[in-house]
Amino acid sequence: MSGEPEDAEPDLRHYRELARQLRSVGVVNRELARRLPHDCPPASAGLLTLLRRHGEMRMSRLTELLGIDLSVTSRHVAHAADRGWIERLPDPHDGRSRLLRLTHSGESRLDELSELATETMREFLGDWSAEDVATLSSLLERLGRTFGDCRARGGHSPPPGTDAAPDPATSRT
């Protein structure tokens, strides 16, 4: 026992090790992506997830949230629309624009992908205790809240101690 209080601020070594360990999240994401159905690449799963989370939106907003070029977003949208997972609707506020909306088929596809991810986690973490899985999940959720949606802020986190960026679900473009 070091004699330090349990809630003492981590030193730089801890932050360095955390950054190193978070690279393993990339390994997990690659495994999840590898298991996706052939017709649903990670980009499609990502845009469906964003539409479920934030609701219907314009292509420009989706591009911002995905953090990619508009032409790339357009290809991903076309892929999802061709499969009936999303629909393009006229924007009632701007006749020149379209709103993207998740369809029932897209909702079902996301449910299937969620089950697939759940089964993958269960397969890989089957020897973990329920408490360990819950602790990791809780800490990752807290980490996500702390960082917020960097893409919605142009890639920058708010300074510590300031309010987070507005909820992207409430601001439509």
Give your account of this protein's structure.
This protein has 173 residues and is mainly alpha-helical. Mean pLDDT is 85; it is low at 155-173. The N and C termini lie far apart (53 Å). It is globular. Strands 1-3-2 form a 3-stranded antiparallel sheet. It has helices at 12-34, 42-54, 59-66, 70-82, 104-124, 130-147, and strands at residues 57-58, 86-91, 94-102. It is built from 6 helices and 3 strands. It has a domain at 34-146: Winged helix-like DNA-binding domain superfamily/Winged helix DNA-binding domain (Arc Repressor Mutant, subunit A, Orthogonal Bundle), CATH 1.10.10.10. Residues 148-173 are annotated as: Disordered. This is MarR family transcriptional regulator. Residues 162-173 have a biased composition (Low complexity). It comes from Streptomyces hazeniae.
How helix-rich are the residues, as a percent range?
55-70%
* Binned strand content: 5-15%
Name the overall outline: globular
Uncertain regions spanning at least 5 consecutive residues = 155-173
CATH superfamily of one domain: Winged helix-like DNA-binding domain superfamily/Winged helix DNA-binding domain
Brief sketch in words of this structure:
The protein is mainly α.
Helices, strands, pairings?
Layout: H1 12-34, H2 42-54, E1 57-58, H3 59-66, H4 70-82, E2 86-91, E3 94-102, H5 104-124, H6 130-147
Antiparallel strand pairs: 1-3, 2-3
Helix pairs in contact: 2-4, 2-5, 3-4
